[in-house]
Amino acid sequence: MSAIRPELADIFADVFMFSEPLALRTGPDDVPKWDSLRHIALVSAIEETYDIKLSMDEMMEMVDVRAIQAVLDRHRV
Hints:
Distance between the termini: 14 Å
Structural class: mainly alpha
Radius of gyration: 11 Å
Order of helices and strands: HHHH
Low-confidence stretches: none
Mean pLDDT: 95
Number of strands: 0
Shape: globular
CATH architecture: Orthogonal Bundle
Largest sheet: none
Number of helices: 4
CATH class: Mainly Alpha
């Protein structure tokens, strides 16, 4: 897997007010404001940024940056 997409850092900053560097393993335990409500905001921001529609399974799969990038790779964005 390649480097972390720069847009994800912007999305994390907007949704979670998270300014730490992202790592592939960055997940809810590392992001204090990542709760179920903000997860929905994360999904929405990703869909809007990449102009894609995510399935419920994909939304649930996004448990860390690595998984988010894997979903984006499958959408070829």
